[in-house]
Amino acid sequence: MTNPAAGTPAESTPTTTRIALLGAGNVGAEVARILLEERDELTERIGAVPELVGIAVRDLDSPRTVELPRELFTTDADALIDSADVVIELTGGLEPARTRILRALNAGKPVISGNKALLARHGAELHAAAEAAGTSISYEAAVAGAIPIVRPMLDSLSGDRVNRVLGIMNGTTNYILDQMDTTGASFDDALAEAQRLGFAEADPTADVEGHDAASKVAILGGIAFHSSYTIDDVYCRGITGVTAEDVEAAREAGYVIKLLGVAERVADDGDPGQPSGVNLRVVPTMLPRKHPLAGVHGAFNAVFVEAENAGELMFYGPGAGGAPTASAVMGDLVAALRRSVAGGPGVGPSFHADLPATSVDGVRTSFSLTLLCPDRTGVLSAISTVFAEHGVSISTMQQRDLPADDQYPGQRLAELRIVTHQARNADLVNTVEAIRGLDVVLDLRGLIRVENPS
Amino acid sequence: MTNPAAGTPAESTPTTTRIALLGAGNVGAEVARILLEERDELTERIGAVPELVGIAVRDLDSPRTVELPRELFTTDADALIDSADVVIELTGGLEPARTRILRALNAGKPVISGNKALLARHGAELHAAAEAAGTSISYEAAVAGAIPIVRPMLDSLSGDRVNRVLGIMNGTTNYILDQMDTTGASFDDALAEAQRLGFAEADPTADVEGHDAASKVAILGGIAFHSSYTIDDVYCRGITGVTAEDVEAAREAGYVIKLLGVAERVADDGDPGQPSGVNLRVVPTMLPRKHPLAGVHGAFNAVFVEAENAGELMFYGPGAGGAPTASAVMGDLVAALRRSVAGGPGVGPSFHADLPATSVDGVRTSFSLTLLCPDRTGVLSAISTVFAEHGVSISTMQQRDLPADDQYPGQRLAELRIVTHQARNADLVNTVEAIRGLDVVLDLRGLIRVENPS
């Protein structure tokens, strides 16, 4: 390859590729910096000069995290797109991002995007537009920040059969749960600490309610199972209800609570209302301490993949941040440009399998729950009977006596911690409802799913 | 895409791609099984029918781990290659593998290989042949078995600057060291156990002496640093000298001993004999227990990557085994065929940077060592002086009194455990030699490198 900077003689000057950048936030500004600082090295890798021709922003005067040449900025995104060979979209939100990406794709220009909300809503439309125009849309940055997971799933696992994807895909919630686990903090205190350190936003809803992770599950689940999903296909529960007591009880039992994004193949279990397909969910989950995902601390992300032949794989790294996410954008960009220099179009994901998203009802899982009961004969028997009637068997039950409580005068109290064997989610939910209705159950707390019970 | 199995009407029948498989060992047999069993699904993913046209073996009557149709086998590898569109080489060894791969590449046929010894010796020649013929050679299976690391390094990190790669790239040695760590076993006992369980071969030399890992470091280091290396560029030390006492001492200090393959950028430190470049090495290394690689147990592999923008990434999974390694082969195959169906050639790695492999002398690292000394005044001072004279500073020093030893009659004995700060490897080696020569040092044991001292 030619290196103009080194003045290599006798080889032809490489062509120039014109790059349009939409958005100059945290990630966009880092992408611009890398394109400007690493131009010579990138030219070597791509075989063409990557020229950043402009950065479209809403407000020319907004402060930026990186100092960038003023003359690159424009408010006319459409003109910038029309003047470029490849478009990087890092604005976020549904519109005008969707319309602009379609404008580029329809003109046959490769697009790199980090827009998880858009991809989890209109991914199918964007892929169809790319395929129709013989170009590509890439979005490594949309899932788990810097961690290479979209590309390995598309290419490296393209000859295998994925059975399950388990991911810690949101750094804010992992930071909060890790703080609760290591310091015994309450959810509110851990959230406040995360906000103070910049790991959580002033309005943390999208993170703590699981919506951010749900977008990523929809995108990654689609790629893993060669099907197309939206965020509406994802059953989503956040971590606002996880208490310090839940975390403590999990620790005592050898577990840690993580907010897991899960996409898993669900087999036909003979229930006509429950087709085989893929269940997509985001739920606080107890994981055994020895599971590789249990060791993912702080704001780090990781994705654990169970495949038929490869077995168990894990991909670990920073799930957010300007420079790490920019690295993912740059990987997509260089890969797309190298392919385009080599003369071939990109190869998009295949969605031929079209597996339906299934209800969480049919998923086989385990529950952990804690019951407050009077300490007298007949209680255990009443509770066990309800489990048996619903076809749910108990894996472990621990009982401990509690001190007297003014709220329940004159009663000796006991706490029962129960972990069930795997059963259909719907059966577990019905069991829990029936248990809750028993006279001998004063309170039911700490209800949480368990993966891979040991 | 068309699915002939589903009888989709109105679309054209997909073309057929003729696949030649060389070798039917553990991995080859699994690849053949997957190609035959998953033909319909693979057709959907590729957009063409992957037809296994033959399997070249040395002996038609050798027993196989998977039952395969007899009529597929042939001993005429050349004729099989000539009849195919794509070639999978899983025979191992340098020849005839090299000549056969060149035959396929020179004819413009994509090659998938899992042959680490060949790639670590003749990789540059094979890449050049692929580029000259406008085709590709892929070898995800050659490094860390099922773990997607070659493809992510080539594509996902193509826009970043890798600073260091640390890998547990040999399952046999990781199993042995993990056994020594968790059970206190000696090297010999752990090796025997590994052999009994099939994790180590009858002749374990290539594994325990680090040669297998060294091949992988040469291959992965070349990709990470856009340069071309051979196994001769890798400084290699095995684990046969690691004792139960070393493992125990490391544990007491909060470390675990792993056989690490390392490829790291070495800056110009002003020493004219030591150019900036990349140091490649395989060495038993103490890692802090909290490092993500410290939690990689049994025969699992993992590769830890430190990149300028992405930060710290880890890729974890099974490093060997028939089906897992076959998954990596199949990923390369499907990716190559999808690109070829889409009309573009593969894009090979770039080796433009051409960074020299540097001697281990200039690498900055830390040493841990244990000294047996008489317990009297002046000893500490004599030892400290030697360190100071060589410009090596001491990070921690722990002394404990030892019981009397008949080997050293009439002396009170003490054991000193020293961990140094980071210093040039050459200075550390000279320091250790000088220490060894001191009168007051009766024995020097447990000399081992330390990464990321806490």
Average the pLDDT over all residues of chain A and give the rounded result.
89
Largest interface: chains, residues each: A-B, 61 and 61 residues
Helical proportion of chain A? 25-40%
What oligomeric arrangement do these chains adopt? homodimer
Count of helix runs of chain A = 14
CATH domain class name of the largest domain in chain A: Alpha Beta
CATH architecture of the largest domain in chain A: 2-Layer Sandwich
Amount of beta strand of chain A: 25-35%
Which stretches of chain A are low in confidence, meaning pLDDT under 50 for 5 or more residues running? 1-10
Derived from helix and strand composition plus strand pairing, the structural class of chain A reads: alpha/beta
Domain ACT (chains A, B): 368-449
Pathway (chains A, B): Amino-acid biosynthesis; L-methionine biosynthesis via de novo pathway; L-homoserine from L-aspartate: step 3/3; Amino-acid biosynthesis; L-threonine biosynthesis; L-threonine from L-aspartate: step 3/5
Binding site for L-homoserine (chains A, B): 201
Keywords (chains A, B): Amino-acid biosynthesis, Methionine biosynthesis, NADP, Oxidoreductase, Sodium, Threonine biosynthesis
